[in-house]
Amino acid sequence: MTEVLMTQLGHNFRNPQLLETALTHRSYFFENRAQAAGHFERFEFLGDAVLDLILSETLMTAHPQADEGALSKWRASLVNENALAEVARQFELGQFLHLGKSESAQRPQLRPRLLASALEAVIAALYLDGGLEIVRAFVLKHFASRIDSLDKQNEFSADFKTRLQELSQKRFRTVPAYKLISDEGPDHAKIFTVEVYVNGRRLGEGSGSSRKEAEQAAAGEALKTEEKRT
Question: pTM, whole model, 2 decimals?
Answer without folding.
Answer: 0.68
